[in-house]
């Protein structure tokens, strides 16, 4: 079911949607970029379609909506434990095909990995996707190589074209918002080719751990962890207990994003730490994205959004690393 409507009418729809939903989308944040006088696109709550940035890739993935950077799991006092009040509203997220695929990877880790994470599940059950299309492939994207350039897993599709908005609604619970509007055939267009092509090596096994290709990253990587924080599929976290100043027996336990690339991630009791070498950390990350996860679940963890390449201050390219890995496997090194 498709519709054509003006931006004013679509904003009226958005207003109705926000009665029972929190609506998130990529927003252009002026002068909030890494460097002086640069902008950043990042996810936040949106009120109208003009708030949504359709033409630029977001720096962070929409992962932070359903898996917050820091999340309070419970509060504790001397004699009781309380969970935070649950948000009553549902969640609608404007996002691209690769990010919908990335959420599938998070679902696999948190809901289908032998245990259901109750905190993730509470948020995830509230979420519906509003698909945004990519008119052109963005820099560093290789979604076609990873098979994440197309999806049918969305409740609505929205295209903004000039002062017109075209909508495809597949969700019966949302379709009543468009009753009486002009009907039109609306279907999303998907990227068929990226400038960047990545070849996942065939016959990959743990013998590649000994390859020389990992050595260059020992000197290049600075262990900042940006690649993990912007990634839509990285799911690691650490726990923090926060004790309040007024009473050090009262506080809260938080779940906080963690990075396999930073110092201390593998620290163990007694002071032992493995993968101290940054090349070993790069190897661990790459092999997890294109080997370990696939071996267990039957599809690759990486979705080819290219955000890790965008974010790295040392210009380390994940995609180029995978292609080097492919060459090393072919050459038997």
UniProtKB/TrEMBL annotation:
Record key words, sorted: Iron, Iron-sulfur, Metal-binding
4Fe-4S ferredoxin-type domain residues: 211-242, 293-321
Top-level taxon: Bacteria
Pfam (any one): Fer4_22
PANTHER family per UniProt: ANAEROBIC SULFITE REDUCTASE SUBUNIT A
Name of the protein in question: Anaerobic sulfite reductase subunit AsrA
Organism: Clostridium mobile
